[in-house]
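Ops channel
N.P.: pipeline sanity check, posting one input/output pair.
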């Protein structure tokens, strides 16, 4: 580890947190240009990944109440980004699928985020880009680790 980076996990967390938060904020701002909030993106990705998923499962995955999730789902439906499906055996339940418009909104969001990030990365020295590339796997391990 370079001498200017802390070896202590708590100190490293303190050093990394502001940079990670700022990058995440800027990527959210780029997504907003396509008309999607961060939660919109998360929900559309989850619905795309699990066609037929319902409000309860989405609420549980995002650790929010069902009524709050219903509000978000209604907004996604009104925007034409998802469709509601009736449950085959339980008329009280429904699930959701992503529409072509929802797919297009996700693709535009991905393009805007990638363009912004690629432009910033192109300004870095090759060694700096290599350091970020080397950090990709450990950063993913941080978010994928179960608490």
């Amino acid at each position: 580890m370079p001498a200017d980076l802390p070896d202590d996990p708590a100190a490293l967390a303190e050093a990394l947190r502001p940079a990670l938060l700022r990058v995440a904020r800027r990527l959210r701002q780029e997504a907003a240009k396509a008309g999607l909030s961060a939660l919109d993106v998360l929900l559309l990705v989850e619905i795309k990944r699990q066609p037929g998923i319902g409000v309860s499962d989405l609420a549980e995955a995002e650790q929010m109440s069902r009524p709050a999730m219903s509000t978000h789902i209604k907004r996604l439906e009104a925007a034409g980004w998802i469709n509601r499906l009736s449950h085959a055996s339980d008329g009280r339940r429904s699930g959701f699928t992503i529409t072509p418009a929802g797919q297009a909104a996700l693709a535009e969001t991905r393009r805007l985020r990638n363009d912004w990030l690629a432009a910033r990365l192109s300004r870095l020295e090759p060694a700096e880009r290599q350091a970020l590339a080397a950090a990709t796997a450990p950063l993913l391990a941080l978010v994928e680790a179960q608490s």
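N.P.: looks fine end to end. The two ends are 25 Å apart (CA to CA).
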